[in-house]
Write a structure and sequence with these properties.
The complex is a heterodimer of chains A (about 280) and B (about 220). Chain A contains 5 helices and 14 strands. Chain A has about 280 residues and is of the alpha+beta class. Chain A has a 4-stranded antiparallel sheet with strand order 1-8-3-6, with helices on one face. In chain A, strands 2-7-4-5 form a 4-stranded antiparallel sheet, with no helix packed on it. In chain A, a hairpin with a 5-residue loop joins strand 4 and strand 5. Chain A is rod-shaped. Chain A starts with a helix and ends with a strand. Chain B is an alpha+beta fold and about 220 residues long. Chain B has a 4-stranded antiparallel sheet, with helices on one face. A 4-stranded antiparallel sheet of chain B has the order 2-7-4-5, with no helix packed on it. Chain B is elongated, with a radius of gyration of 30 Å. Classes of the chains: A alpha+beta (about 280), B alpha+beta (about 220). Chains A and B meet through helix 1, strand 1, strand 2, strand 7 and strand 8 of A and helix 1, strand 1, strand 2, strand 8 and helix 3 of B. Strand 1 of chain A pairs antiparallel with strand 2 of chain B.
Chain lengths: ~280, ~220
């Protein structure tokens, strides 16, 4: 009876001990360096874990260098180290018992959120079996089974963290698709409207180019216009003789050796020698 | 840094753990330790689905002056912003809740203003969710099982939790696949629509300019 009670207490103790080495997967924001400490009771325990950079600035994310991960033993040596990764699993045997330091280092200024899971597993060895008569081989098997289930759970936590990261990327892609498509349509419409406005502006009266040459068909315009202006150029290179116009004449002047006559309907032109060139309508 | 001071703070750990709700007899170090900066807050978070039990214990560890342990304040917020736990000027505390919505649960700790030293605090957190938070002692007492049967019952609980996690991951993957496929379809449609917008806008341009030039007697 005593033996059974002793065994059950030992088993419960072992159970509690095994259950003790169990941490949930927490997320920490790493600005520069973040360290997590965990105490390893037995020398030779297997420390397993994983970490994933979950939420980082995904702008040009494809070539993001990731973060560095270092494990320091209580003696100060670096037991395990990973550089420039965005998530990985790790496993090593603790060389001695004591307080181990797990550090994440972020080489960039943007803060990153890291989700990590650390598990310290202890399986009783034959030495422990020999020391403590309450332990029997079934404890070893149970411990091994427990460790195997823990490894499955750890893998699931790793998959969950990676899935979260993938989800963030997907959301970002979805928002970008809509944003860029709508922006593209608006930009296209704007640019074409600007083009039309510019072309209109090129043909407006305010532009100096249009004042000098006006390509109107004089035959069509003649019946409508009220006033016509003509230039009389000299054919011999000298100044032309001033034309004589009777009737409805508005303006007559000499410009650079040519005569410019503006007259209305009903005017009569006489005595103007030279080449007649239709001018602009006023 | 820690090996020298460890023996000094080992016994307080055991004492605190013995006096805490778990009443473990053996010296167990269940928790992870974090450093709280002298200014600013240190936050830990976890994405938890709904209907999950969360159990956490936190305590300050300071080996320099065991008489006057620095105090911290803690706050736990749910993803919708509700304040689940708030504690001020304490050296240790605990909180337990069942999640009602799925999302990011954040626990923040910061140093109290009363201690103006520039040193960093060490905080131990024991954070358990789901099956790890189950109180097996009460199950053992209630159902009067012990020993190997209790251990196997525990392992069965873990296996069921694994299966639950797998189903959850599968559902999440299905959601994400749907989002991916919608995005894929949208990329195709928006590209074709962009071509359509281009053609429509250029036709409008040409029609308007032709009308304008006809009005201005240019063509």
């Amino acid at each position: 009876m005593e033996k059974i009670w002793g065994k059950t207490w030992a088993l419960m103790g072992l159970l509690l001990l095994n259950s003790a080495c169990n941490v949930s997967s927490l997320s920490v924001t790493v600005n520069d360096v973040e360290c997590v400490y965990e105490y390893v009771i037995y020398e030779g325990d297997t420390i397993t874990g994983n970490f994933v950079v979950v939420d980082h600035d995904i702008f040009w994310g494809a070539d993001h260098p990731g973060i560095d991960f270092t494990v320091t033993s209580p003696g100060g040596n670096t037991v395990h180290s990973l550089k420039g990764t965005s998530g990985d699993k790790f496993e090593f045997k603790a060389p001695r018992n004591g307080m181990y330091k797990f550090c994440f280092h972020n080489p960039h200024s943007t803060p990153e959120t890291v989700s990590f899971h650390i598990h310290i597993g202890h399986i009783p060895t034959e030495h422990d079996l020999a020391k403590d008569e309450h332990l029997n081989p079934i404890n070893v098997k149970i411990a091994e089974l427990r460790e195997a289930l823990e490894s499955v759970t750890a893998e699931q936590k790793y998959l969950k963290a990676r899935d979260t990261r993938h989800r963030h990327t997907n959301e970002s892609t979805r928002k970008r698709v809509i944003g860029y498509a709508v922006g593209e349509y608006i930009l296209l419409t704007l640019v074409s409207a600007l083009q039309v406005i510019y072309i209109r502006h090129l043909f407006s009266k305010s532009v100096a180019y249009n004042r000098r040459t006006h390509r109107e068909d004089p035959v069509d315009e003649f019946t409508r216009i009220m006033q016509l202006n003509i230039f009389i150029l000299s054919s011999q290179g000298t100044s032309a003789v001033r034309p004589v116009v009777t009737g409805n004449v508005t303006k007559i002047y000499n410009i650079l050796g040519c005569w410019s006559v503006t007259f209305g309907r009903g005017a009569v032109l006489s005595e103007g020698q030279g080449i007649y060139v239709p001018g602009f309508q006023e | 840094m820690f090996s020298g001071g460890l023996t000094a703070c080992f016994w307080p750990i055991i004492l605190v753990l013995c006096l805490s709700r778990n009443t473990n007899i053996l010296p167990v170090a269940e928790a992870i330790w974090l450093t709280i900066p002298s200014s600013g807050t240190k936050c830990v978070s976890e994405e938890i689905q709904s209907n999950v039990v969360v159990l956490a214990d936190y305590y300050v560890i300071d080996e320099n002056n065991p008489d006057q342990i620095p105090t911290i304040s803690a706050r736990v917020t749910s993803p919708f912003g509700n304040n689940l736990h708030h504690n001020e000027n304490a050296t240790h505390g605990q909180f337990a809740f069942t999640t009602s919505e799925s999302g990011n649960y954040i626990a923040c700790f910061w140093k109290d203003g009363s201690h103006k030293q520039d040193s960093e605090l060490t905080l131990g957190i024991d954070w358990k969710i789901g099956i790890a938070a189950k109180d097996w002692d009460s199950v053992a007492k209630k159902e009067k099982i012990e020993g190997v049967e209790l251990v196997l019952r525990r392992l069965q609980g873990i296996v069921e939790a694994i299966r639950g996690n797998l189903v959850y991951l599968k559902d999440r993957e299905a959601d994400m696949r749907e989002v991916s496929e919608i995005t894929n379809a949208r990329v195709a449609w928006f590209s074709i629509a962009s071509l359509g917008v281009c053609i429509a806008v250029s036709v409008l341009q040409i029609w308007y300019l032709k009308r304008y030039f006809v009005k201005k007697k240019l063509i």
